[in-house]
Structure of Type II secretion system protein:
Amino acid sequence: MSNQIEFADDDQAFTNTQEFQDIKTAAYDHLLTRIEELGAEFGRWSRSAIQQFVNLDVDGFVRLQRIPLNEAEVRQIADALTKELAGLGPLEDLLADMTVEDILINGYNDVFVSRHGILQRETLRFTDNAHLLRIVRRILAPLGRRLDESNPMVDARLPDGGRLNVVIEPLSVDGPMVSIRKFRKEPLKPTDLLNLGTMNEEIYSLLDNAVKARCNILVSGGTSSGKTSLLNALAFFIPENERVVTVEDTAELSLNHPHVVRLESRLGGFEGSGAVSIRDLIRNSLRMRPDRIIVGEVRGAEVLEMLQAMNTGHDGSMGTIHANTPRECLYRIEMLAGFAGFQGSESSLRRQIAGALDFIVQIGRLSNGRRRIVSITEVTGMGDNIITLQELYRHESFIGPDGEEADRWISLGIFPHAPKLQRQRQLGQQSTGSANTGGLGHASTGGQAGRR
């Protein structure tokens, strides 16, 4: 076993050298000459046929040029070139790795990867910036997106549901900047989040009841905190007999529901003609007989349409927003509404927000990379011209008896005031024998779900 590890380390060491890059580049040019001789025939070959072709030609090239490589090193060159000709080069293995969440490329020789919420530098590299651009354009070609000096910034949805963002010169100073966000083929279920420790059983039950009772929920959090994954999970609680319309800038949601209508905004063409915004899509979705409207991310003028939808009979709607706390979430909604040209007074806007939202679920990524629901906050109404909030659960980390870090959620013991959850409140009062615990909090770890 130890010998296998040593061989793997030796292989990795060779692929990270400049010698490997130089030989691969020379062999690639040789293969291009051979491919030109084959003409259209090469385009009909399967990947296995390309692999066999590359193996034979690379072996012949190495012998002809008298390059001092052993059999394992020749195989590595051939494998890399097969990925170049039939796949996506150095990106192929990272895209196939299920543990990779984000791929961040800052120029050809500076690659970072996020796994389990932790960002680390990768040893792989591209030959040069031209090589990196060639791979990126190969990804964009089937999507019909152009990347050049006149259009140096591209945001696109990948066929597998991932998201690609690229910025090149002259906007990017140090070479092409590539950001790839990957998404799971099978979205996380609420039980998966429970087992991962993202929430405990009490929060699971509250969210289950809130979604089924058609409460309006906004998932708030920072970048890469797990907002979309949580929104996907909440959709599992939606009854199957309801029609759900999703509206997104770039389609990322993958709801496990039998009746989903997916809408995606469109960028404008030359001089912005033909653009369709999220605001336009939400306005149109109101005419599509939706039971619920789910906005992938609220980031602009669409906030007004979302609030109106929540206030005009489309209960149970949900969305995500970038904010660090529930209170900042409300401030951001007010700011976005102002930018959108809201004509009413500050008081009327806040009343509309308070009337639209029932719960704000704050999710965060901790320093160790774990994603946790850090707060469940209920929007209870208005008081002194301020939207009043009631925090129901708050996350805390602590060191357990075994010396390991664990999670717990502190509850004030106050049941939600939302009329939609009246039945749950009555059941809770019967089980505890009182309507309130006097504001004294208690902690719940949720069993195994609370342990990392």
In short: The chain has three domains: 12-87, 88-184, 190-429. Residues 1-8, 434-442, 446-452 have pLDDT under 50 and may be disordered.
